Amino acid sequence: MRRVAQYRLEGIANFRDFGGVACRGGHLAAGRLFRSGHLAAATPDDVAALDALGIATIIDLRRPGERRKDKTPSALAGRVVTGDEDDQAEAPHLEFLRGDDTSDAAVEHFLLDYYRRAPFEPRLMALFARAFAALEAGPVLIHCTAGKDRTGILAALILLAADVHPDDVMADFLATNAAMLTPANMERAAAQARRLLGREPGPAIVRALLGVEAQYLAAALDAIRARAGSLAAYLARLEPPPAQG
Hints:
Elements: E1 16-17, E2 21-23, E3 26-28, E4 33-36, H1 44-52, E5 57-60, H2 64-69, H3 74-77, E6 80-81, H4 92-97, H5 104-117, H6 122-134, E7 140-143, H7 150-161, H8 166-180, H9 183-197, H10 203-210, H11 214-228, H12 231-237
Parallel strand pairs: 4-7, 5-6, 5-7
Antiparallel strand pairs: 1-4, 2-3
Helix pairs in contact: 5-10, 5-11, 7-8, 9-10
């Protein structure tokens, strides 16, 4: 059973410890693995809370354009690992919303396709490798924008590599919904979609902006096994890139 620690951060959404769970032969320590949405709105108290947790490395999975839009506070910047490839103008989900078909079926197809492709994006694979390399150095925080898709895939890979039971891996992945699918967040997401669409968004769009579904992580893991041969073979491909500097 997962040991749940409560963290109340003012400006960082979807923050949680995804360790503290049973794994084969023992227990994955709590207080070493953290995940969240972006840190741009972190308050001084939030920064102090991250310092108190001893977070040594922050893996920022966002593209350069996303990082320019929502900048990490300077007090945390020295610990951040980023990737500068694939600097597209906007996030794929925003590009999707500007398209012609935003039906429920199209939303599902878009997300399934995204999850199948994401584990093999070179920029993300390099960052995944850096995340694994950082695990021995101290507590690690991984995040993207909402802390649900890219972050969810990486968190699942870290847990699976530690032989955490797949049911517990999925439970952590789905915990995003409790954190993000709140009335206030859903209204903000609906307003964002309304501006992009010029009309009232369907519930599938609002949920896609904030939440996750089990079938999406399953699609990513199925794609990994199909393309790499096995999860172990995929993880072996995450060779740490050459040291910089």
